[in-house]
Design brief:
The structure holds two protein chains of two kinds.
Chain A (H helix, E strand, L loop, with lengths): L4 E3 L2 E4 L5 E6 L6 E8 L3 E9 L2 E4 L8 E7 L2 E6 L8 E8 L9 E2 L3 E5 L1
Parallel strand pairs in A: 2-11
Antiparallel strand pairs in A: 1-3, 3-8, 4-5, 4-9, 5-6, 7-8, 9-10, 9-11
Chain B lengths: L3 E3 L2 E5 L4 E6 L4 E9 L6 E7 L4 E4 L2 E6 L4 E6 L8 E9 L8 E2 L3 E6 L1
Parallel strand pairs in B: 2-11
Antiparallel strand pairs in B: 1-3, 3-8, 4-5, 4-9, 6-7, 7-8, 9-10, 9-11
Classes of the chains: A mainly beta, B mainly beta.
Chain lengths: ~120, ~110
């Protein structure tokens, strides 16, 4: 089991640039989640997908953020244009089903720094 | 809606015990516990469903008091490997779609 795979591990970019974060969930998992972690706000849910369909994106901070899941094995989180306040660690997580007894499996995260 | 964790930080000597609490102002359907080591991803520890059950994982156990809308994580005879930040994640009774809301975390440091 390869686990949830995220790329890149680190991303440093300048304000105004487009940033794309990538995630490959565990095979067979129907749910995929994007979280953002900062010291000030902790772990925040941005958006989640069920069977590749976005279910709730109420946590997406602004229109600058968008997420897609074109197939069951790949998702992207895009920020365009990026701003310094977007600096954070972005985690992707997947779970096998959406019930309350389903643990989240997190990827190793992407540390984004926007200068 | 974010659950409140206490304490925010705790320092232990190896072999000592600790309790971490997670409280919600709303009714809970389930509580998840995760541990995150510095620079790593959160790792799942256990899930508790409403009903007041208690679960254990080696020397780490947890309880869920549905009436108080509170869960507690118990770490007994702590080991150096227990160091990290512990997060609880809660699901509200009216939303069983696995949308977890995480608490602010409790930083645990175990010293030799």
């Amino acid at each position: 089991d390869a686990g949830v795979i995220q790329s890149p591990r680190h991303e440093v970019t300048e304000m105004g640039q487009e940033v794309t974060l990538r995630c490959k969930p565990i095979s067979g998992h129907d749910y995929l989640f994007w979280y953002r972690q900062t010291m000030m706000r902790g772990l925040e849910l941005l958006i989640y997908f069920n069977n590749n369909v976005p279910i709730d994106d109420s946590g997406m901070p602004e229109d600058r953020f968008s997420a897609k899941m074109p197939n069951a094995s790949f998702s992207t989180l895009k920020i365009q244009p990026s701003e310094p306040r977007d600096s954070a660690v972005y985690f992707c997580a997947s779970s096998s089903w959406g019930g309350p007894n389903s643990p989240l499996h997190f990827g190793n995260g992407t540390r984004l720094t926007v200068t | 809606q974010q659950p409140v964790q206490s304490p925010q930080a705790v320092i232990l000597r190896e072999g000592e015990d600790a309790v971490i609490n997670c409280s919600s102002s709303k009714a809970l359907y389930s509580v998840h516990w995760y541990r995150q080591k510095h620079g790593e991803a959160p790792v799942f520890l256990m899930i508790l469903l409403k009903g007041g059950e208690q679960k254990g994982h080696e020397k780490i156990s947890a309880s869920f008091n549905e009436k108080k809308q509170q869960s507690s994580l118990y770490l007994t005879a702590s080991q150096l490997s227990y160091s990290g930040t512990y997060f609880c994640g809660t699901e509200m009774s009216d939303n069983a779609g696995n949308m977890l809301t995480f608490g602010g975390g409790t930083r645990l440091m175990v010293k030799p």
